[in-house]
Amino acid sequence: MKAVQTICRRLRSSKGFFMEPAAPCVGFSTSSYSCGRKKKTNPYEEVDQEKYSDLVQSVLSFRGNAQTQESLFEEDTLLYGPVSKCKSHLQQDEEARLTGNGFPLFNPERSLKPNTANDATIPLKIPLQRNKIPSVTRVLQQTMTSEQIFYLERWKQRMILELGEDGFAEYTSNIFLQGKQFHEALESILSPQGDLKERDENLTSGYIESIQHILKDVSGVRALESAVQHETLKYVGLLDCVAEYQGKLCVIDWKTSEKPKPFIRNTFDNPLQVVAYVGAINHDANYSFQCGLIVVAYKDGSPAHPHFMDTKLCSQYWAKWLLRLEEYTKKEKKQNIQKPD
User: Fold this and answer.
1) What is the chain's percent helix, strand, coil content, to nearest 5?
2) How do residues 47-59 score in pLDDT, each as one tens digit?
3) Partner of 313 at 20 to 30 A CA spacing, among 24, 182, 321, 323?
4) Which residues pair with 253 in a beta bridge?
5) Which is higher by pLDDT, 148 or 53?
């Protein structure tokens, strides 16, 4: 031990060893490693950093928009195409119910061509009888999906937050009033008994201005604000209009909106309402076979969006309407059982 200490003192005083290049490396260590072992080099240090400095800087300085779930789905669809989804158990059950609940939309005992010989010059206007039979509107309201209820409630809460409770009540009241006035104006315009002066006044309305290009293709009005009833399926409704649109007899449903609805999927449950009327009409002796038409008018006078529903599309929505009607019937039966005598 003393010998080692003596050697260390000599090394400090001599400022290290000076050796020939050919001489082997000499070192002292208390571990198993020799002092002459080469240090590991980082491979990235060998890269020409000046050559790639601009690229590195651009990557590090880039700040892209945060991706959302929707944007990721859009990218996947663009790169790999649409996802081929397997049918869930709920969808399979729904299809099974559709095949079991196949009440026809069209009445096989009646001709598909409307009997124009018996068409009256004055449009039908059958009053709606209030009875225990549910209306189409009530069935749709009572069978909304949980998703529909969620979005409706969220919209309501946002409006209340913006307008307050009283302001929201006034807003909904005005929307209802505008819709009522719009339908009254249309009835005046389309009815041969309408007041000409009143028609001219109605043309100043933004909603009426919005549908001017639609009205040019509407003719042969058969019914206005008239009740219809499905005797077999037991529901009633008050349809807006039955008339020819571009030569095809249709149930026309007039809607108002503050937002554009260029596609039929934007109209939510409106197609179900129309096909419910179509199905009832085809089993009602007062009417003839129909197609469907949803017209969305805008307050600012922007051109309305017409959504024509041919027989194929009507049949698709008719199947969905039957499911909603079945769900409503089950709910009513369950509530009646739970009610005390």
Assistant:
1) 50, 15, 40
2) 676 766 766 666 5
3) 182
4) 294
5) 148
Token reading at 33: 């490693």
H/E element, 190 = helix 146-190
Q: Indicate the SS3 state at residue 78.
A: helix
| Cα 295 from Cα 312, distance rounded (Å) | 19
Written as one letter, the residue type at 150 is: F
Active-site residue set = 240, 253, 255
What torsion do the CA atoms of 131, 240, 271, 145 make, to the nearest 10 degrees? -40
For 145, left (φ over 0), alpha (ψ -120 to 50), or beta?
A: beta
Whole-prediction pTM value?
Answer: 0.66
For residue 201, the surrounding DSSP H or E stretch is helix 196-202
